[in-house]
Fold this sequence. Notes:
It comes from Streptomyces atrovirens. InterPro entries: BetI_C, DNA-bd_HTH_TetR-type_CS, Homeodomain-like_sf, HTH-type_TetR-like_transc_reg, HTH_TetR, Tet_transcr_reg_TetR-rel_C_sf. It holds the Pfam family TetR_N. Keywords: DNA-binding, Repressor, Transcription, Transcription regulation. The protein has about 210 residues and is mostly helical. About 70% of the residues lie in helices and about 0% in strands. The chain starts with 5 loop residues before the first helix and ends in a 9-residue tail after the last helix.
Amino acid sequence: xxxxxxxxLDARRRQxxxxxxxxxxxxxxxxxxxxxxxxxxxxxxxxxxxxFRGKDELIAAIVTDVLDTVRGILxxxxxxxxxxxxxxxxxxxxxxxxxxxxxxxxxxxWMFPRLMIQVxxxxxxxxxxxxxxxxxxxxxxxxxxxxxxxxxxAGLMSADADTDAxxxxxxALVQGFAAQMALFGGISERTLGEGLRALMAVGPVRTDx
Length: 209
C-alpha cells in the first residue's frame, strides 16, 4: 500500500476543521452533530474519526489553530524594525486572518467573529476548553508583548511602559472589534485602523490664530 504523504494528511485535517468550523458558526456547538460535520466536510465517519474523536476535540483544535495563526502573524510583525504601529498592525492582522481563513456563511458573512463569540460562551461550560483557550491567549499575549518591546527599542514607546498591559489592551481591541463584527456586521478593518489612528493622535489641538 502506498504511504499517504504528510501534505495529504494535513490537507485532510484542514478540510475537517474548516467543515466543522462552518457548522459551528452557522448553528452553534450544541445544535451541530457529528453527522452535520461529516456532510459539510464531505467525508466518511472513518476519515473524520481518524483525526478527531468527537465535537469537543474538534472545537479545541479549531481554537488552537486560530490562535496559533494569530500568534504567527504577530511574531512576524515583532521581527520588523520597528513593528507596525497598532493602527496598521491590527487591521493588517485581521486582513491576513481573513485571507488565511476565508470561510464565510451562506450570506457571505465571515464566520470567525461569530465563532469566536460561541467559543467564549462555551468556555463557561467547559473547563477543558477554557484551559485550551487560556493557553492560546497566553501565547498571543506574549507575542503582543514582543511587539510592544519592539516599540520600546525603536523609541516609539516609553521604556518604562508595561508591555503586558499593552498586550492585554491590544487583545481587548481585537476582541471588541470582532464582537461588533459578529453582532452588527458591516464594519471593516479599515474602520478600526482609522479609529485607532485618531485615538493615537489624541492631545491638545492646535488652532491657528
